[in-house]
Amino acid sequence: MKKMSNIYESAANTLGIFNSPCLTKVELRVACKGISDRDALSKPDPCVILKMQSHGQWFEVDRTEVIRTCINPVYSKLFTVDFYFEEVQRLRFEVHDISSNHNGLKEADFLGGMECTLGQIVSQRKLSKSLLKHGNTAGKSSITVIAEELSGNDDYVELAFNARKLDDKDFFSKSDPFLEIFRMNDDATQQLVHRTEVVMNNLSPAWKSFKVSVNSLCSGDPDRRLKCIVWDWDSNGKHDFIGEFTSTFKEMRGAMEGKQVQWECINPKYKAKKKNYK
């Protein structure tokens, strides 16, 4: 394994904002609820942009992926930042509706923003606030930011998944599958770790490899349960469930040792109805 610092360049160091020693690296996860758009006939394509303040000006640090046709997005993209205990690090999270025709912000609709300090997020671990638009609340929309300290474990792992003979959910074409990986937490909640790209019209997809920190994947515990769900993507945002399986990083690590690692991707409803279902 390599160190994450070789992969993720610190935003604070990039901007040259702070001189005091870094206390720790922090991963920030973002989700929104109830996002509204000017166009009531369609759902927005939201993206969250993280900005950091320096000398009274805001600089873009990073941005999430765009999630198409969604009012309650949960983002797979993590923000990795350095936390300086003795510094006030002001952050701004902006939500923009970025259509499929462009990825720039000039033509994108601003859906709301939230300002706070990194210290507030780290101390509370989970910070939820209403989105503000031009000084007023943006309807009932809100944003939640979860902080996780890397705690000295900044190793990362590269994973790649493929599937064979997935269930076909489309009538006139093959399914458009994508994979989501969730970490099962000690409090019985689950946390999205990664969402792959969509592979169109393919029942045996090979998704692109991706890098993830061991802390994010399993909180440093190789035996922690991971839940993996395969969906059939739909343009209206109502994706069809294909199947699921559970695993651990310990099992996945077998592939790194040259072993063939595979799981049955099961739809429990179909399995209960059909004795020979696989």
Can you characterise this structure?
InterPro entries: C2_dom (IPR000008), C2_domain_sf (IPR035892), C2B_Copine (IPR037768), Copine (IPR045052). Residues 3-131, 137-264 form the C2 domain. It comes from Mus musculus. This is Copine IV. Keywords: Calcium, Metal-binding, Repeat. The protein has 278 residues and is mostly beta strands. It has two domains: 7-149, Immunoglobulin-like (Sandwich); 155-273, C2 domain (Immunoglobulin-like, Sandwich). It has five helices and 15 strands. It has helices at residues 11-15, 118-124, 214-218, 249-256, 268-273, and strands at 2-3, 24-33, 46-54, 57-63, 79-83, 90-97, 109-117, 126-133, 136-149, 155-159, 177-184, 190-195, 210-213, 225-232, 240-248. The strands form four sheets. The protein has a four-stranded antiparallel sheet with strand order 5-2-9-8. The chain has a four-stranded antiparallel sheet with strand order 4-3-6-7. Strand 3 and strand 4 form a beta hairpin. The chain is globular and about 55 Å long. 28% of the residues are buried. The model is unreliable at 1-12 (pLDDT under 50).
Strand order of the largest sheet: 5-2-9-8
| CATH homologous superfamily identity of the largest domain | C2 domain
Estimated structural class:
mainly beta
Based on CA atoms alone, the radius of gyration comes out at 20 Å
Tell me the number of helical segments per DSSP (H or I, 4 or more residues long): 5
The portion of residues assigned to helices is: 10-25%
Number of domains in the coordinates?
2
Report the average pLDDT across residues: 85
**Approximately how much beta-strand content do the residues carry?**
35-45%
Low-confidence stretches: 1-12
Q: Could you say what the CATH topology of the largest domain is called?
A: Immunoglobulin-like
Query: What is the highest CATH level, the class of the largest domain?
Result: Mainly Beta
What's the total number of strands? 15
Span of the ends, CA to CA: 35 Å
The largest sheet is: 4 strands, antiparallel
Return the CATH architecture of the largest domain: Sandwich
What is the string of helix and strand elements?
A: EHEEEEEEHEEEEEEHEEHH
Overall form: globular
